[in-house]
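[job 4417] fold queue: 2 targets
>>> target A
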Amino acid sequence: MPLQLLPASAAAFAPRASSVNVVMSSKVEPWLTQTLKRINRVKRPLNSVSQHQRCLTETLSSSSAIWTLTSLMIQKAPDADLRKDSNPLIEALFNYQLLHIEAYIVHVDMVLRNEVAFKLTPDSIESLIEYHKDIHCVDISANTYPWSEKDMQVRKIHEEFIQAINKFVYRTHVSALEGLEEDGAGELLCGKSEEVKNNLMGMFHPLLPPLPRIIDVVRPQPLLPSSPVGANWWSQPSVSSSVAAPVDSWRVVPSSPSTTSSVDPNSVWANMGLNEMQLPSPTPSYSRPYTTAGWAWSSPQVSAPIPSLPLPSMLAQQPCGIGMGYGGFGWDRYQEYATTM
C-alpha cells in the first residue's frame, strides 16, 4: 500500500494554506481539460501538463473555492424542548434545520493515489461542535440513568468529538473534480455526499452507562412437597430414644386381626401350663407414648419387632377349660369332657 501523504494544512487546527498542493501526472485526462475550460471565464491556454496544473492550483486556492460536501437535518433544540404539534409539517419547520457542511480542497494527487482531500471550513466545524454540545450531549445525558461519573463521561465524549471533527479529512477519487464550478466552488456528485454524511454522524457517539453491579441474592432453600410448613428443613430428625424393652415372644399376644402366623397353635398351647399362661383382658390399643421433646417434628418411634403369635379368636374351635394342664385332662381328651359338661 503506497504511503499516504498530506500537506501540513490538512492537520488538525491548522489554518487554510494560501496555495493548494496539486500533483499532476505526465498525461492529462480529457475530462479535466473540459472541466477547466468550462469554469474559466477568461480563456486560458491548456496545451501542456504545467498549464493544467497552474490553472487548477489557482482555481482551488481562491478564497471562494468552497465545496458543499453534504447537508444535515439537525434539531434546533434538545428533545425536551421540541415543539409538539399534530401537524408533522409544523413540527419539522419549528424543530429542525438544515446544516450545510462546507469544505475546501487541501490536496490533489493524480499520480500516487488519484485522490482529492477535503478539510472542513472553520464555520462548519464550529457549527458541528455547538450542535454536539448543546443538543446531542444534552439528549444522551437525559436518556441515561444517573451515576457518579456521568458528567465527566459526557465531557469526555465532547472533547473527543472536538478532536475528531478537527482532524476529519474526506478523501475521494479525483474524478470528484468534475463537480467543479466557477470560482473554484463545487459539490460532490454520484452519491458521495451520503458517504460524507455517514462519516460525520458516526462521530456522534452515544453515552454508554456502566453495567449494573451483580448482587448475590441469598434465596432460602425451597421446601420439599412433603415437608410441613415452618419446619426447619436443615435440622436432622431426631430418633426417639424411648425404645420398648425386649419381652418374651410367648408373653405378647398381638391384637391385630389381620396378623397371620405360620406357627402351629396346637404346639404352642400343648407345651404351656395353666399357671404359666397369662391372657390379658382386653388388649389395650396402641397409643403413642408421651414425650417432652420439643414441638418440632420427629420421626416415629422405633420399637423392637414383635413376633406374631396366634390370637385366641383363631383357637375358637378348641376352647380351653379350667382343667387344662399336663397332669389332668389335655387337648387329646377334649371330646370326652365336652360331652359330660
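>>> target B
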Amino acid sequence: MSDISMQEAPYEASMGDYFALLKPRVMSLVVFTALVGLLVAPVPVHPFIGFVAILCIAVGAGASGALNMWWDADIDAKMRRTAGRPIPSGRVAPGEALGIGLGLSGFAVILLALATNWLAAGILAFTIFFYAVIYSMWLKRATPQNIVIGGAAGAFPPMLGWAVATGGVSVESMLMFALIFMWTPPHFWALALFVKSDYGNAGVPMLTETHGRDATRRHVIVYTLLLVPVAIGLGFTSIGGPVYLAVAAVMNAWFLKGAYDIWRRTDADCEADKHKVEIGVFKVSLYYLFAHFGALLVEAALRQSALGGW
C-alpha cells in the first residue's frame, strides 16, 4: 500500500460512504447466486434460516469488499473509475475500512456457523480470505492471470448456498462454481480492453498491459470456448432441464459470437468505433450470468410445482 494507508479521513463519513465500502453492486451478484444455490438444492431450508444465511453471505461479501478497498486504496486513487471510492477520495479513513472489514468478517462467519453448519461457515471464511489475501494482496499485483485464479472468490456463493441447505458439496454445486469461474476471465478481459489505460496507470499487470490487446482477444475466445461446455453440462444435472438448456443455448451462442467478433478485431477497429464491440460483449456478459441462474430458479420452481409447491 502507498502512503494513503496512513492518512486520516478529513471529515466524518456518512452511512452512504460506509455502505459504498461494501461494494453493493458486487454484493448483489453474490446474494443472487448464493440464493439460487440455496433454492435449487434438494434439501428444503426453513425461510428464517435461509434469510439469516443469505444475510451472512451478503455481510461476508461486503466485508471482503471493505478489505479489498483498504488494501487497494493506492491503486484505486490512480484509476478514473475507482478514484471516487470512499478511501482514495478521503471520505473514509483506511483504519476504519480495515476495522469494518475484519469485524464484519468475524460476525458473518460465526453467525453462519451457528445458524447453519460449519462447512458453510468454512467456505464463507475461505472465500473472504481468498478474495482479501490471495487475490487482493497477492495475485492482483503479481500476475496477469490474476482474474483467472482470483475468479474463484466470486464463484463460491452458489456453492455456499448449496452447503447451507445440504451440509455438503456435489456435482451440481461444483458446476455452478465452475460456471462463474470460467465466465469471469472473458467478462473482465472484455472490460479491460476498453479501460486499458486505467490498469496501466495503476501498475496492475492486467493481461492487456503485460501481453497486449491481441493476446487478450485470443484469451477471450479461448476461455469462452471453455465456458460453453460447463454451462451446457450444468443443464444435464439434477438441477437442469429444458428451460435451462434453451436459455444456455441462446446465451452461449450470443456470448461466443461476441467473443469471436472480439478475436477478429484489430486495434484500428477498436479505435474506429470506440470499442463498441468490446463494450457490447461486456454488457452481454452481465446478462449471461443472470440468465443462467435465473433459468435454474425457473427449473426449481417447475419441479416444486410438479411436487405440489415449495
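[job 4417] complete. Note on B: Residues 1-9 have pLDDT under 50 and may be disordered.
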